[in-house]
């Protein structure tokens, strides 16, 4: 039995959503296609997502850009709107999810560690019923783009968006969120600028 199938047996109730639709204005080119160790970032993140969840959705307004990547078990969700930000992209992906929990990932996380994600997944059964999400926390607030959400948060997320909300931090302030222990903060390194990329 491979690691993947062991995991999917144990945690079949997990879907992953990978966001690939930002402006990449600080980077000046699409971050999803930047190669780290010869592998495009989106492909790298999607492989890790596929090792954690049975279904992986890539939410993007431009799937044609990524058609030459190797993305096993990944399905594109074509975003209806462009440049509405990650919260709106997440809501569009979440509307397709059938499992109780979803793992949300940005595409610009070059240091993602599958072992840490798998450790978190093993704890999901212990998350209190009142929590709508389980996320790592740092000095600037929650890390919303590398963590877990309950599917049932969709109605309140849509309410927040329909009232003009676009900030994960503001949305999460309204709800109960469980803290995930982060063994290594480097894992959440966000590759936003050419300097970030060069430092890899
Ligand atoms: N699907 C989708 N993903 C988005 C959207 N905006 C941001 N993202 C994703 O969210 C993650 C974090 O994006 P950021 O690094 O904050 O923003 P960005 O717009 O990509 O880059 P900047 O223009 O430099 O801020 C990345 O995986 C982006 O691809 C969007 O409107 N739709
Ligand atoms: Mg970023």
Mind explaining what this structure looks like?
With 200 residues, the protein is an alpha/beta fold. It contains 7 helices and 10 strands. The protein has helices spanning 3-10, 41-52, 86-94, 114-123, 154-162, 168-173, 194-199; strands spanning 14-19, 35-36, 39-40, 55-60, 74-78, 101-106, 133-138, 141-142, 146-150, 177-180. Strands 1, 4, 5, 6, 7, 8, 9 and 10 form an 8-stranded mixed sheet that branches. The longest helix is centred in the first third of the chain and has 12 residues, at 41-52. The site of magnesium ion has 4 residues, from loops. Keywords: Cytoplasm, GTP-binding, Magnesium, Metal-binding, Molybdenum cofactor biosynthesis, Nucleotide-binding, Transferase. Its cofactor is Mg(2+). GTP binds at residues 19-21, 31, 108.
What's the short version?
By secondary structure, the protein is α/β, with parallel strands linked by helices. It has seven helices and ten strands. It has a single domain, classed as Alpha-Beta Complex (Spore Coat Polysaccharide Biosynthesis Protein SpsA, Chain A), CATH 3.90.550.
Helix content: 25-40%
| SSE series | HEEEHEEHEHEEEHHEH
Radius of gyration: 16 Å
CATH homology superfamily name: Spore Coat Polysaccharide Biosynthesis Protein SpsA, Chain A
By CATH, the topology is Spore Coat Polysaccharide Biosynthesis Protein SpsA, Chain A
Q: Strand content of the residues, in percent? A: 15-25%
**Termini separation:** 34 Å
Provide tags for this entry.
single chain, 200 residues, Spore Coat Polysaccharide Biosynthesis Protein SpsA, Chain A, two-stranded antiparallel ribbon, 10 strands, 30% helix, 22% strand, binds guanosine-5'-triphosphate, binds magnesium ion, metal-binding
